[in-house]
Amino acid sequence: xxxxxxxxxxxxxxxxxxxxxxxxxxxxxxxxxxxxxxxxxxxxxxxxxxxxxxxxxxxxxxxxxxxxxxxxxxxxxxxxxxxxxxxxxxxxxxxxxxxxxxxxxxxxxxxxxxxxxxxxxxxxxxxxxxxxxxxxxxxxxxxxxxxxxxxxxxxxxxxxxxxxx
Length: 165
Known about the structure:
It is a single chain. By secondary structure, the protein is α+β, with helices and mostly antiparallel strands. The protein has two domains: 2-66, no CATH class; 80-164, no CATH class. The chain has helices at 12-20, 30-38, 56-66, 115-130, 141-144, 147-156; strands spanning 2-3, 47-49, 52-54, 80-90, 93-103, 160-164. The chain has a three-stranded mixed sheet. Helix 1 runs parallel beside helix 3 (56-66). The longest helix has 16 residues, at 115-130. The model is unreliable at 1-11 (pLDDT under 50).
């Protein structure tokens, strides 16, 4: 049985006490706690702490299970910019086109910037249902989806697309 050194790299008691403080960690911060242990090298199978046998991994998991889930307070505060840069030639001249999509999320829906993943396919599905998209078969979006209505629908959801050359 390995003993926890008083001033060595294994300070399991101090780490466990830090993790166990009320409201110390949110669920998404569990990786931080696990990282504390990982940086100290492989965990021993068992330790003797104050005369008791403990398994460090079990102690950590038990402490993490005691943490209350994080509760969202206030609107989602995120912002993302998606950028596409296309370089090529036009008429023998080098050209560069840049498109940016600014995504603040949709706080009213309690959604962050991940709306830029779900909204575009939803917009296309709605366009199909309304009959705005008449193309059939396996086609790239630039051939099948009318850009004007698509970009207008993005704007309605707070996603602003800008273009520059």
